[in-house]
Amino acid sequence: MDLDPSQYSDADRRQVDPPIQVDAATWSKAGQLDWWVKERQQWLGRVRGADGKQHWIKSADLRPASGSVRQ
Fold first, then answer.
1. Would 71 be classed as within a structural domain?
2. I need a labelling partner for 32 at 20 to 30 A (CA). Which of 2, 41, 43, 52 fits?
3. Looking at the domain assignment, is residue 26 inside a domain?
4. Angle at 35 between CA 33 and CA 40, to 5 degrees
5. Within a 10 A sphere around the Cβ of 34, how many other Cβ atoms?
6. How many Å is the Cα radius of gyration of the chain?
7. CA-CA distance, 6 to 22, in Å (whole number)?
8. What is the residue range of 54's domain?
9. d(Cα 13, Cα 28) in Å, to the nearest integer?
10. How far is 26 from 57, CA to CA, in rounded Å?
11. Structural domain total, the chain
């Protein structure tokens, strides 16, 4: 899935600045979260993995990584 946050209204997107480390549903390290978008009534987070690839993951399947600082 390749979503572009700029194509969403302000009500349907949230930038995470600075990006934070997150874990995915397997609760293994997923990467850095930098955007939220609302697609079909559910929030998705854009996460860049260690390999540099971006993935969109359901909000229910993400949580801050251990030691990640929330602002």
1. no
2. 41
3. yes
4. 120
5. 17
6. 11
7. 22
8. 11-64
9. 25
10. 12
11. 1
